[in-house]
Amino acid sequence: MLIPFGIRRKEGKYFIGGKRAIVDKDSNLFVDGQRYEGTPGLLDLIVMKNPKTSAYDGNDVKNYKEIIKRTGAVRHPENPQRPVANRGHKWEKFHKANLGETCKN
User: Which of 22, 31, 101, 105 is deepest in the core (most CB within 10 A)?
Assistant: First the structure.
């Protein structure tokens, strides 16, 4: 089952797109060797189907965009030319507007 843009668990490990995601004891998120401060806003963007605009700031958006690009989470694993999803609240209100070329069909 594909979970568009979020964290999924496989064999006891967490993944975003095709990359392993690790959260340390201080809520820092590590993806593909890069550390991201696990702010409530960034986590809201990652896990919520309808992230609250008031929960995240510009730095959270910047980090989220980088994570999506780094992990390929927006692309379908069987066909990288196609996005995982191209409708719904998160796509329309966040991905389409904020990720530009990364999310084009």
Answer: 31
